Amino acid sequence: MKKIIFPALLAVSAIFIYSCNDSKTETTAAADSFNLDSVKAAIAASNARYGSGFVTQDSVGFASLYTTDACINPTGIPQICGTQGIMAYFNEGHKMGVRDVKLTTNEVMGGKDAVVETGTYEVLGAQGMSFEKGKFIVIWKEENGKWKMHRDIWNPDTPPPPAPAK
Fold first, then answer.
1. How far apart are CA 109 and CA 162, in angstroms?
2. Which end of the chain is more exposed for a tag (fewer CB within 10 A), N or C?
3. CA distance 138 to 136
4. How far apart are CA 71 and CA 86, in angstroms?
5. CA–CA separation, 24 vs 19, rounded Å?
């Protein structure tokens, strides 16, 4: 009986050790498939399309840069979520004279689940007139194999107007 139990325990131990090592290999392989440089390149391409959407008045293309459940957090108004809301915000901006937005990335960090970008922006009107300059933070997520903006918040560098006199 002892002769049978020892080899059985040895076999079970070997299987356990092998399965643990195999699991680590799979986890390492999944982590290794994330490449921050390729995500940075995808962000740069998306940022170039972001501003040009105002030039061509392409609200659908603009909204496609965001995840389907994205939320934007503009200054001075409540959060806007979803594709339709983001398209409506874009259309209102275009009606107000926005013709381009220049984005400059300062930092990108994160991993496979989410990436955070920080940077600065400039909103331009006709003939390149500057409306506003400020800073932003975007959380990016991968959706259907493409990196898209998931949460977007920005605010201007100019101070808010003074409070009304009493």
1. 36
2. C
3. 7
4. 8
5. 9
Residue showing tokens 């300059």: 133
In order along its 166 residues, the chain shows pLDDT tens digits of 445 444 433 343 443 344 444 444 444 444 558 999 999 999 999 999 998 888 889 999 999 999 999 999 999 999 999 999 999 999 999 999 999 999 999 999 999 999 999 999 999 999 999 999 999 999 999 999 999 999 999 999 998 788 888 8
CATH topology of domain 36-156: Nuclear Transport Factor 2; Chain: A, (3.10.450)
The Cα–Cα gap between 93 and 99 comes to 9
Tokens describing residue 162: 């003074």
With tokens 């293309």, the residue in question is: 61
- Distance (Å, whole) CA 100 – CA 124: 5
Residue partners of 66: CB distance under 8 A and separation at least 6: 72, 83, 86, 148, 149, 150, 152
- Rounded (5°) CA angle 68-49-106: 95
